[in-house]
Amino acid sequence: MRISRTMALSLIVSVTLLSAVMLVAGCSDAQPSVPPPTTPAEPDPDSQPVPPMPEEEALYTPEYEPTGDEVVVITTPKGVITFEFYFEDAPNHVAAFIERADEGFYDGTKFHRVEPGFVIQGGDPLSKTDDPMVGTGGPGYSLAAEFNDRQHLDGTVAMARSNDPNSAGSQFYICLGPQPFLDGQYTVFGQVTDGLDVVHSISVGDVMESVRIERGE
Fold first, then answer.
1. How much is the pTM?
2. Which of 19, 57, 127, 176 is most buried as measured by Cβ atoms within 10 A of its Cβ?
């Protein structure tokens, strides 16, 4: 059967148009999609402004001025412990301790930590009521570190602190033998002069019945 020239031309045109449509469709599928533009979110009228960071509390500066003749007398059920101060090496720690002792702050507190061969530790007001958070309490202030050249010997008295060097408050420890690895890391402010045997006999929970400051004539 013979195909007329007109029909042949129509067939060629139809095939060409079909191919063009398929090519356009293929190109369209290959293009990456573009996300529609987004509208910026409206501010939430109920949102609260971010509060400013609180200012760092200033370190405590005691008002008491030691005379240089004060000594500490701690009365416990095991006996009496007496220690002298290192006024020149840790003046603020000494003055703060005297202030709190004169107020009766330490009376009734307990030695809440005893590490044989290492230290005994007390001075936490939370120990008066056996608070489960004992070991974290203090006087409500922190002292600037006064690290010095005094060594940690048997009967040395120093202030406990957290990882922050300027965090000592009211908790103190007494060494049960030399502890040279503590030298220069904690503020040493005193040394036991009498009752070292009492220090070594202290157990967890022993009460400081009274902590008094005696002054020379």
1. 0.75
2. 127
What is the CATH topology of the domain spanning 70-215?
A: Cyclophilin (2.40.100)
What DSSP line would sit under 14-50, residue for residue? HHHHHHHHHHHHHHHHHSPP-PPPPPPPPP-TTPPPP
DSSP letter for each residue of 86-97? -TTT-HHHHHHH
Q: Is the CB of residue 107 less than 8 Å from the CB of residue 208?
A: yes
What is the spatial distance between Cα 82 and Cα 71, in angstroms, rounded to a whole number?
Answer: 7
Cα–Cα separations (whole angstroms), residue 113 to 25, 200, 206: 81, 13, 10
**What residues contact 208, with CB distance under 8 A and at least 6 apart?**
74, 75, 76, 106, 107, 108, 109, 110, 111, 122
For 115-136, write each residue's pLDDT tens digit: 999 999 999 999 999 999 999 9
Percent residues over pLDDT 90 in the chain: 72
Structure token digits, residue 91: 């003046």
